[in-house]
Amino acid sequence: MLSSEQVQEILPHRGPMLLIDEVVEIEPGRRAVALHRVSSDAFWVPGHFPQEPVMPGVLIAEAMAQAAAVAFLSAGSGAGDQVYLVGYDKLRLRKPVRPGDDLYLHATHQGTRRRLATFSVEAFVGEDRVASGTLMATAPEPTSS
Known about the structure:
Layout: H1 4-10, E1 22-27, E2 31-37, H2 57-73, E3 85-93, E4 102-113, E5 116-125, E6 128-138
Antiparallel strand pairs: 1-2, 2-4, 3-6, 4-5, 5-6
């Protein structure tokens, strides 16, 4: 388990773009389950959509990418490195996410090839899978000892 402060030691993101409140499960370098508490005062609530706020899909995708980055960088020397999202395959947004929801972000590292890390990602609200896909991100340059 990682607190918000520990997440911030790993990721460079800060509010309002830090979309992980804590990590509830972690296997460093392999997988992470992170939590984002969807707040009614989030920056997007007044405009997406004013009568019925729904978390933008791009923010759900970003939250899953941050969970993947935590999983990947938590393995050790990567903390503080930059990991850049470069793409998604078969990203599906299945159900709306609303203020008050607890959004659980699951990310599992599938492998790395030529500095391109691949992750299987899913997002859940309760038992409902609200998003899923495969993402690719750049991996940090290996450090020489």
